[in-house]
Design a protein that fits this description.
272 residues, alpha/beta, 10 strands, 9 helices
């Protein structure tokens, strides 16, 4: 059974991304099982780039939508055009391993599983998968195994059955980029679908782990999406989110940095 991979590229040529370099380094045996689709949300169109011939297939698509350039539009495009039964979501800064791909390929015939994901680390910290019944996700990482509850994670490296995705019709337009991954895991849990965590460690740079590196625009979009997600999908955690924001506001103000506080207060007030 083959696998379609949706690689989402942004601010650099896709051939220069970490994820693409990992993919092309894999053995020809593995690549012949992969239908790779690069969806480019960047500013420059690289359609004329010569594509490698050792994948089962490879397609490049430059996103013409000037208003939506996040992961959702990329995932949706591939979901609607793919022929395989399984779809892997992949950011451009994930150090995917051949062992993980091979383990996934070996599992694709399992009719009981609707999603697979690896153990993802940012340095020494496991960032995915984690428990979902707390906002302090990173303090409660999940181990390899099969889950139907209390699990969430990031979308990069996540493999979904096309049958499951068609059942929920589309990737939600509520989350063009941030927290789309939490929404996907919420859908899986809500429908009691089995998620198998593969025992394979992968490195990934998670922007929310490095707040000082974020632009003001990215800070606002991330926390707006976070608040929206908990308000509408896990309202039982909304009080904890507000407490978290208050602590962030006080900490920032004590340092003389007034932007985070103003941004978070505005998010809370506008989302009531």
């Amino acid at each position: 059974m083959n696998l379609t991979i949706c690689l989402v590229a942004y601010n650099k040529k896709f051939t220069e991304t970490v994820s693409y370099k990992q993919l092309i380094s894999f053995s020809s045996v593995v690549k012949k099982c992969l239908n790779l689709v690069v969806v480019d949300n960047g500013k420059k169109n690289y359609t004329e780039t010569v594509m490698p011939s050792d994948f089962l297939s490879m397609k490049y698509y430059f996103n013409p939508n000037l208003h939506e350039r996040g992961t959702r539009v990329a995932y949706q495009y591939v979901l609607e055009t793919m022929e395989d039964y399984w779809l892997m979501l992949l950011d451009d800064d994930t150090e995917l391993t051949e062992d993980y791909i091979q383990k996934v390929l070996n599992e694709l015939g399992n009719p009981e599983i609707n999603a697979f994901c690896p153990l993802i680390f940012d340095g020494e910290v496991q960032i995915s998968p984690t428990q979902s019944e707390t906002i302090k996700n990173l303090n409660f990482p999940q181990k390899s195994g099969v889950y139907i509850e209390n699990i969430t994670g990031i979308s990069s490296g996540l493999v979904l059955s096309k049958k499951f995705m068609l059942g929920i019709k589309e990737f939600s337009k509520e989350f063009p980029l941030d927290y789309l991954d939490h929404w996907i895991f919420w859908q899986l849990r809500n429908q009691t679908k089995k998620i198998k965590v593969i025992d394979e460690k992968i490195q990934h740079h998670l922007s929310v782990q490095h707040l000082k590196e974020l632009s003001k625009e990215r800070f606002i979009t991330i926390f707006t999406s976070e608040y929206h997600y908990y308000q509408h999908y896990q309202p039982e955690q909304l009080y904890s989110i507000k407490k978290k924001y208050v602590k962030m506001i006080v900490k920032a103000w004590l340092k003389g940095d007034f932007f985070p506080g103003k941004a978070l207060i505005k998010i809370i007030l506008e989302k009531k």
